[in-house]
Amino acid sequence: MAKPRVIIVTGTPGTGKTSVSRLLAEKLGCIHLDVSRYVIENRMYVSYDEERQSYVIDEDRVREAIKKLVETSKCIIIDIHYPELLDFLQPDIIIILRTAPEILERRLKPRNWPENKVKENIMAEILGVPTANALSIVGSDKIYEIDTTDREPEEVVRIVLEDILEGKAKPGPKIDWLSRMSPDELIKYEYSG
Ligand SMILES: Nc1ncnc2c1ncn2[C@@H]1O[C@H](COP(=O)(O)OP(=O)(O)OP(=O)(O)O)[C@@H](O)[C@H]1O
Ligand SMILES: [Mg+2]
Where residue 175 sits, what CATH number does that domain have? Predict the structure, then answer.
């Protein structure tokens, strides 16, 4: 694959987007755009949702700002958990980080989020929501899922550089937590909202 100019790194919160993107950007000599952080630093939100404990972003402003950054960057790694916002972009690839639900639960615990928010995010991971959203903006030939459950960010970056960018990895969705879970395991993550 020619050196990519625009890479989107997505996934449920806690799957390691920021850790991986930072390292990948360093290795490729690209800019790392952590969209959540950028939105907060530049106050590109319209309100704060107390119940969800998250900002409601000003979508038009964020789109416009990202568009400008992409146009003026030689190469950029966009670290975002709602890739569907970037439907105007034509990324070279979208990398989706996946983490087994019980391990993701462990990674999200220190955040002290409301139980409902943790469950909602774990259910999104079980159902593969980030992958479905990535597929709403590019074809499956441009998406690559990586399981970060037992992998340090360094190993994930090695997979991107040596397997994906070298054309050795097969694109398309491949991870399915749901089919491995019993109804009893699944019901633990039922949430209201
Ligand atoms: N591969 C990994 N193995 C173990 N822990 C990890 C791994 N990747 C990230 N973590 C840890 O999980 C936490 C979340 O990582 P990180 O902030 O990179 O995730 P994120 O996907 O960017 O989350 P958010 O969407 O909330 O920004 C951090 O404490 C990080 O140290
Ligand atoms: Mg992050």
Answer: 3.40.50.300
